[in-house]
């Protein structure tokens, strides 16, 4: 169960979202872990990057660096052992990002126990991770639209990978859905984002938080 989300008036900016997050208590040692989940291709990385910048350039952990070809979703133990447990002790975590082209892990990276750490990727709101999150955000875009955007982004050379990925993602969310546990839903608009109460949130149904700045054009 995540801490209640402070209410916000309709039509406020992303600054209000950040202010709400700042009022949350730490969820993993001294760290407030913010999860950004959604279907592949839904814009998680771009939104997470913008949010992290507003949170004083908070570190961002991409779950693509934790997963592998052989473990598209079976990476719980690696994430918990290498990242969550050290952060929970107030220590710097160390992990080796996976190289999807070379099919091997790269040089080790450090992840400090900053006041905020944003974790983005498919499965950021999974069952084993939720107890450590201060807040879970879900990118509100239908799966087929998300996947088509992802295929267009990655090109023909990744077409076969996407076929296998879609099957794996469907299976993952069928067994361990994230959206029902999201505190907030994030929709991309023609200009910026709209942030709405999620299924697990406590903000009233007539309230929303809107970010009207132009988003980056790259996904």
Give a written overview of the molecule.
The structure is a single chain. With 219 residues, this protein is an alpha/beta fold. It has a domain at 26-178: P-loop containing nucleotide triphosphate hydrolases (Rossmann fold). The protein is built from five helices and eleven strands; from the N terminus they run H-E-H-E-H-E-E-E-E-E-E-H-H-E-E-E. The chain has helices at 14-22, 44-54, 76-88, 143-154, 159-175, and strands at residues 32-37, 60-62, 93-95, 98-99, 104-105, 109-111, 116-120, 133-139, 184-188, 193-197, 209-211. The strands form three sheets. It has a seven-stranded mixed beta sheet, covered by helices on one side. Mean pLDDT is 86; it is low at 1-12 and 203-219.
Which key phrases capture this entry?
219 residues; alpha/beta; Rossmann fold; 7-stranded mixed sheet; two-stranded antiparallel ribbon; 5 helices; 11 strands; 28% helix; 20% strand; globular; disordered N terminus; disordered C terminus
What is the fold's blueprint, element by element?
Layout: H1 14-22, E1 32-37, H2 44-54, E2 60-62, H3 76-88, E3 93-95, E4 98-99, E5 104-105, E6 109-111, E7 116-120, E8 133-139, H4 143-154, H5 159-175, E9 184-188, E10 193-197, E11 209-211
